[in-house]
Structure formats: structure tokens, C-alpha cells
Design goal:
The chain is mainly alpha-helical. About 45% of the residues lie in helices and about 10% in strands. It folds into two domains: about 180 residues, Alpha-Beta Complex (Inosine-uridine Nucleoside N-ribohydrolase, Chain A), CATH 3.90.245; about 35 residues, no CATH class. The strands form two sheets. It has a three-stranded parallel sheet. The chain has a two-stranded parallel ribbon with strand order 1-2. Helix 5 crosses helix 8 and helix 10 packs antiparallel against helix 11. Keywords: Glycosidase, Hydrolase.
Amino acid sequence: MSLYMLLRNGVEVEGVTIVEGNIAYEQEVNNALWALEFVSGKVNKDIKVYPGSDRSLVKSFKTVENVHGKGGIGDEVVRPKKLRPEPKRAPQAILELADRYAGELEFLAISPLTNLALAYLMDKSIVEKVKKVWVMGGTIYGRGNITPVAEFNIWVDPDAAKLVFNAGFDITMVAWDLITNYVVEEDEWERIKAMDTEMAKFYVRIYKHYREFAMKHQKMRG
């Protein structure tokens, strides 16, 4: 959904990188390619997918299929029909894009920060080349979603987060505390379903499982 909204609003998306996270890594790659096959047809844009790190820098971590389902969009396991990931790894792709679009490139992380941390370790000059880093992660007031005080994206790889936050990037962090204040209310959810468009069906398909989990276990409104 983030990708679709960016493209619909005229943002030039130069690539998608995959990192360890919610579910099995191979399925994360498949999900990205599958979603891109749907989105690319709507916006007439070919976007490359670069596989990155399948583990955190130092610590071990656990996936959370109980939250997102074994397929990441519920228990449905999807696979792309045609698209395949690039042979180039994500940290190298990030560095090359930073060189190509120095002073313009913005990095949106809705995941752990491992790939960006690895790119930084490979070439610290990336800090001067990346215009902005947007991070969906962390918590300000101590309400977590993986432990009582930790948010998942930072918890998965705290060492990567420490590197990135201390590197000197211009960072805006959108914390879990903030996200929980902006949910899809029940009346909005019903209106989306009633639209019965291809995009509305896609949204309901990928969000339904997590929405139900969030309402039941995280006491969120939607």
C-alpha cells in the first residue's frame, strides 16, 4: 500500500529492498514481487526488487507469523507470476542509487534498518548523498508491539538501528505510538469493502488478517 500511494502521488520509486522481518525471508521476497505485479500495472512503472539481509547484524530474532499469517498477508501464500528479484544485493543497490541521485534520494524504511546499516558500513559517504531517511519504527512513550516497551522494526535489529540513527542521516521517525492513533475505523473499513473495486479488494485482502489481530490482541480500533 505504501508503494501504491507513493506512485499514485508522483513519487519516483527507484527500487524496493527486502530485509529480514515479519515472516520467512523467501516469502517476503515473493510478496514484494507479487504486490509489484499488481501495482505496476496500475501506474505503468517497472520497479526492481533487491534482496538484502535475511538476518539481523548481531542478535537473533523471531518472525511473527502469528501476527501476519504464514504468508504475511494472512495464511494465503502468494507467488509472483513473472517478476523475479535482481541478482544485485540491496546494500550495493542502495549505494549505487545514492551515487546516481546524490542529494535527491530518500530512503523509506517500513522494516528493520539492516540493509541501510550495511550500506553505511560499506561506504560511510552515503550519509552526505541521501537526502532523507524515513523510518516507521520505534516508540516514544514506551508502548511496544513486540515487548511491552519495544517496537518490532527496531527490536529485530537494534544494532542496525543504532548505526543508522547515529550516522548523521536526516531522519524522521514515525513511531508506533503515532501509528496506533490513526487506524481504519469500522465505518471506513465497511466503506472500503463496499467500493468493490480491484484496488479495494486488494487492500482488504492484504490487511484483513492483521487488522483482526490488532483489534483482538493489541486493543486497537482497526
